[in-house]
Write a structure and sequence with these properties.
The complex is a heterodimer of chains A (291) and B (536). With 291 residues, chain A is mainly alpha-helical. Chain B has a single domain, classed as Cytochrome c oxidase-like, subunit I domain (Cytochrome C Oxidase, Chain A, Up-down Bundle), CATH 1.20.210. Helix content of chain B is 67%, strand content 0%. Chain B has 17 helices and no strands. In chain B, helix 9 packs across helix 13 and helix 9 crosses helix 15. The two termini of chain B are 32 Å apart. The chains are: A mainly alpha (291), B mainly alpha (536).
């Protein structure tokens, strides 16, 4: 990509996309809130308009930036700003998951033992309120909220999913090396393989959820275990879905001949995101499934 | 000039009103939007405060139903924190950081526009809850379950409003970090950077780290209310106190998000009017970093009476008291900067000194509450109300007003009337003490917060406090007058330096500053810089 005069600062021209993004998010959330309050039809309509605006905005905004980038408008300083933006965005995502992991650790280290009578607090809590409850994990609490359930084995689908995501991290890295070496065929092949692995992961997770709901009676209502299990794996699954969509966009762009061996920040950003999703999964596998 | 610089120049003259304010990529316009929005919200939140003080003017129920009192006291907090203090600091960052580091604009100008425009819509969501069946959320700004989950239709709107505000501040902070790390002019080393930039660099880090945690906390709440999970239900193995832990893991760094930029502002103003370089610049930088680090390991001091194990209480007590050390470094360094300086007391300096005194009072009561046994008496009383209003009104808000008086001539190109500025200051500084100092007595005597009625024993000081409140509220109308006059009517042109001893790159630009600050990286002349290893 040609470097415009590096001694002059670059400021992008005005854009209509930020305000459209705002309106889209606003409508999406109004729709969701209205729907949750029981007004199904208006809620769904507003939410759909919001979602479509967000999708349209993404096509428009990213399309605009891709166009500017291909024209060679950006200098290396802009490139660094983009990199920092993505890095700190992923950093914020880490802390979003940290909130749920922190909750899980707090529940398992303190709350469940206290309910079961451990420590000064536990003696009182257990003795006066929850007599007869003994701390175990998984648990759905002293009142067995959600009815008896079984948790699935980590060594079935979860292990398979771990292998799927780990190999997808490898394939995306091979694709990146191929891109840097200018080998487009290999890039398209391995990027496509990464997408397939991601989709397979999602299918396995959907099957796992179905299995838990239908055969194991392990649902969102299954006390604290069900709540922490589904919020952690569910938000992770949502991130895998987003990551897969991003990878598909990268694949389409690769097929269309975008990216050069030197200039392919979008690809790198998506692969960072994919590695982040992978690392979160490893933590999930360890703390949610195995331990 | 190259084509890019010309394109910027060209654009300034060919944009309509809508394009300029809704599609902007200009840090000054977006900064103005942030500041205007927070100014408006100051009066929305302030009106709620006036209602609270009116109800508390006398014992007994005067004006409103108790439930409505709960609504306005919680909403007052949410509006002031997320709608006033945070956005006005971001607005100041938008205006000043590019000018202070020799940049043309923020690093990601379109994202900057998005960060701002999310905010008004988030507040439409939040404020609309007043008109809903069941009213606005009425469980305080901390939104503790299970109480908050018993609200009406407002719960979902409140949660989504929090999500939007979180997205807005995270994106804004990503932009600020990228700007500071990537767009500094060559030669402007990190340790020559203005203190305001340093304070925002560290604040941004805090925002990016903790706003997602708040999003996580309210997301769990959303699931508990609407999707049948049981995070906060002990019968299911959950714990309502878990919400408090997650919330305050956000909440305590949030407290510093609202005060660290204030430290930066004061560190800019004091050296200018003491006509001496900032005393202990590096110590000031390290102190901010130290406060930021400690802010992550003190959250349970908000929960001493909730029933945490003794070991936890002791740890969080000592960790909290440790914060007094770097904060003390800052107070001492401001005082030492003034020591033997050629002081003059222009309007911004008055606000800065007011800040140092009032923030110290608030800081001292903070140290008192850090003591676990003492906190058992103070918890949930007006003592804590007095404490955080001293640091947030006497601290954060005073610094913001001081910053406006300091930089407004640079922004508008006009000087304001120093008579009205001084009147505004003296009226504010007296009334704010009439307003909040008696609340410490009320708290000691045991008056609980968030209650619309009280024992007649508390009547006198409540009346004094209410009078102070109305006085302080009315005084802020002077501020409106000064700002409007300066921006639109003042004929008194400001020089580019504005203040005699002002140092820093922003003072090398003309007043008002050009639309995009620097089109090419300026050549750094150390004597122009305010801070760091530079000679004067």
């Amino acid at each position: 990509m040609s470097q415009p005069n590096a001694n002059v600062y670059y400021v992008p021209h005005n854009s209509r996309w930020p305000i459209i993004a705002t309106l889209g998010m606003f409508l999406f959330m109004v729709g969701a809130a209205v729907w949750l309050n029981g007004y199904d039809t208006p809620g769904k309509i507003i939410l759909t308009i919001g979602a479509l605006s967000i999708i349209g905005m993404m096509f428009g905004w990213f399309g605009n930036v891709i166009h500017e980038s291909m024209k060679g408008t950006f200098n290396s300083q802009v490139d660094t700003s983009f990199r920092m933006g993505m890095t700190w965005f992923i950093f914020s995502e880490v802390f979003f998951f940290a909130a749920f992991f922190g909750g899980l650790f707090y529940i398992r280290t303190f709350v469940v033992p206290w309910l079961g009578g451990v420590g000064d607090k536990g003696v009182i809590t257990n003795g006066f309120i929850w007599q007869g409850f003994s701390a175990t994990w998984p648990t759905n609490g002293p009142e067995a909220v959600g009815g008896s359930f079984t948790s699935g084995s980590p060594w079935g689908i979860p292990l398979l999913n771990t292998l799927l995501l780990l190999s997808s991290s490898v394939t995306v890295t091979i694709a990146h090396h191929a891109l840097r070496a200018g080998n487009r065929k290999k890039l398209i092949g391995f990027l496509g393989l990464t997408i397939l692995l991601g989709i397979t992961f999602l299918c396995c997770q959907a099957y796992e959820y179905w299995e838990s709901y239908v055969h194991l009676n392990m649902t969102l209502h299954s006390g604290i275990y069900g709540a922490t299990f589904y919020i952690l794996t569910g938000f992770h699954g949502l991130h895998v879905t987003l990551g897969t969509i991003m990878l598909i966009v990268m694949w389409l762009r690769s097929v269309r001949g975008h990216f050069t061996p030197q200039n392919h920040f979008a690809f790198e950003a998506v692969s960072w995101y994919w590695h982040f999703v992978d690392v979160i999964w490893l933590c999930l596998f360890l703390f949610v499934y195995i331990l | 000039m190259s084509s890019t610089a010309q394109a910027i120049h060209h654009e300034d003259h060919h944009q309509g009103w809508f394009e300029r304010w809704f599609m902007s990529t200009n840090h000054k316009d977006i900064g103005t939007l942030y500041l205007s929005f927070s100014f408006l919200m100051l009066f929305v939140g302030g009106s709620l405060a006036m209602l609270i003080r009116a109800e508390l003017f006398e014992p007994g129920m005067q004006l409103m139903q108790p439930y409505f009192f709960n609504e306005i006291s919680g909403m007052h907090g949410l509006i002031m924190i997320f709608g006033v203090i945070m956005p006005s600091f971001v607005g100041l960052a938008n205006w000043m950081i590019p000018m202070q580091i020799g940049a043309p604009d923020m690093a990601l100008p379109r994202l900057n526009n998005l960060s701002f425009w999310i905010l008004p819509f988030a507040f439409i969501l939040l404020l609309s809850t007043f008109f809903m069946p069941g009213g606005a959320p009425a469980a305080g700004w901390t939104m503790y379950p299970p109480l908050v989950l018993q609200g009406g239709e407002s719960v979902a709107f409140m949660i989504f409003a929090i999500h939007l505000m979180g997205i807005s501040s995270i994106l804004g902070s990503i932009n600020i970090i990228a700007t500071i790390l990537n767009l500094r002019a060559p030669g402007l080393d990190l340790l020559k950077m203005p203190m305001f930039c340093w304070s925002w660099l560290i604040t941004s880090f805090l925002v990016i780290a903790v706003m997602p945690v708040l999003a996580g906390a309210v997301t769990m709440m959303l699931f508990d209310r609407f999707f049948g999970t049981n995070f906060f239900n002990a019968a299911a193995g959950g714990d309502p106190v878990m919400y408090q832990h997650v919330f305050w893991f956000f909440g305590h760094p949030e407290v510093y998000i609202m005060i660290l930029p204030a430290f930066g502002i004061i560190s800019e103003i004091v050296p200018t009017f003491a006509r001496k370089p900032l005393f202990g610049y590096k110590a000031m930088v390290y102190a901010i970093a130290c406060i930021a680090f400690l802010s992550f390991i003190v959250w349970s001091h908000h929960m001493f009476t909730v029933g945490i194990p003794l070991g936890g209480e002791v740890f969080f007590m000592y960790a909290t008291m440790l914060i007094a050390v770097p904060t003390g470094v800052k107070i001492f360094n401001w005082v030492t900067t003034m020591w033997k300086g050629s002081m003059s007391f222009e309007v911004p300096m008055l606000w800065a000194i007011g800040f140092i005194v009032l923030f110290s009072i608030g800081g001292f009561s903070g140290v008192m509450m850090a003591l676990v046994p003492a906190d058992f008496q103070y918890y949930g009383t007006y003592f804590i109300v007095a404490h955080f209003h001293y640091v947030l009104v006497g601290g954060a808000l005073f610094s913001i007003i001081g910053a406006v008086y300091y930089w407004l001539p640079k922004w508008s190109g006009h000087m304001y009337s120093s008579f009205w500025g001084k009147l505004h200051f003296w009226s504010s500084v007296i009334s704010v003490n009439v307003l909040f100092f008696p609340q410490q007595f009320l708290g000691f005597a045991g008056m609980p917060r968030r209650i619309p009625d009280y024992n007649v024993a508390f009547a006198d000081w409540n009346m004094v406090s209410s009078i102070g409140g109305f006085w302080f509220g009315a005084t802020q109308l002077i501020f409106v007058g000064v700002v409007i006059h300066t921006v639109f009517f003042s004929k008194d042109k400001a020089t580019s330096r504005v203040w005699e001893h002002a140092h820093g790159l922003e003072w090398t630009l003309p007043s008002p500053a050009p639309h995009h600050s620097f089109t090419v990286p300026p050549v750094i002349d150390d004597s122009q810089l305010a801070h760091g290893d530079v000679s004067h």
